[in-house]
Design a protein that fits this description.
Distance between the termini: 28 Å
Oligomer: single chain
Largest sheet: 6 strands, mixed
CATH class: Alpha Beta
Strand content: 15-25%
Order of helices and strands: EHEEEHEHHEHHHH
Number of helices: 8
Number of strands: 6
Radius of gyration: 16 Å
Strand order of the largest sheet: 2-3-1-4-5-6
Shape: globular
């Protein structure tokens, strides 16, 4: 039996780093991990997502209705990945919108409030993170990924130890970034 997680957001939000930290933390616990990422548009603010299976699995790709957890960095991307969520699964998502280029140039509409309302209707286990408030309290605009991981751990649907995530970030980030990232990771855990 595997634990299936979808990470989603737009380029530059730290989505890929978050998935790498969770994978490294799970491997520290001697668990099998498989991941698949779509990051081609990452540097242009395009859609980014990762599928991760922790436990024995034949493929890293998660089928529709199989994700135990979606960690969303942006409400529109979270709604886009919602078909992967299984019945009884959980969603942790930022409510801060990042408008797609198509909406900026008038080719499509984007209504973040409507997407949040849709998530409230469709997802029983939903944790909404006010990114602006969180990042203001933490005095750092670049730690949203750690706030979301802390919130995900607190749901019980992400079964890696926060200490293992911290150890992974020590290995992947420079030492000067450790304190702010550790504080952000524990921030959401202490707010629940």
């Amino acid at each position: 039996m595997s634990e299936n997680i979808v990470f989603c957001g737009v380029g530059g939000q730290g989505t890929v780093l978050a998935s790498k930290l969770v994978a490294a933390a799970a491997m520290k616990e001697k668990r099998h991990v498989m991941t698949a990422e779509t990051i081609g548009m990452a540097q242009r603010g395009g859609s980014v997502f990762s599928h991760m299976k922790i436990g024995e699995a034949a493929s890293p790709l998660i089928g529709r209705g199989e994700a135990d957890l979606i960690i969303g960095f942006e409400p529109g991307e979270t709604v886009r990945q919602l078909p992967f969520l299984k019945q009884g699964g959980a969603v942790v998502t930022s409510i801060r919108p990042v408008q797609p280029v198509s909406a900026m140039i008038g080719l499509a509409e984007y209504d973040a409030d409507a997407m949040i309302e849709y998530l409230k209707k469709k997802v029983r286990h939903l944790v909404l993170i006010d990114a602006d408030e969180s990042l203001r309290e933490l005095s750092n605009p670049k730690v949203l990924n750690m706030v979301l991981l802390g919130a995900a751990v607190s749901t019980g649907k992400l079964s890696v130890a926060v200490e293992d995530i911290e150890q992974a970030l020590h290995e992947k980030l420079s030492e000067k970034l450790w304190p702010v990232n550790e504080r952000a990771l524990r921030y959401a855990m202490n707010r629940r």
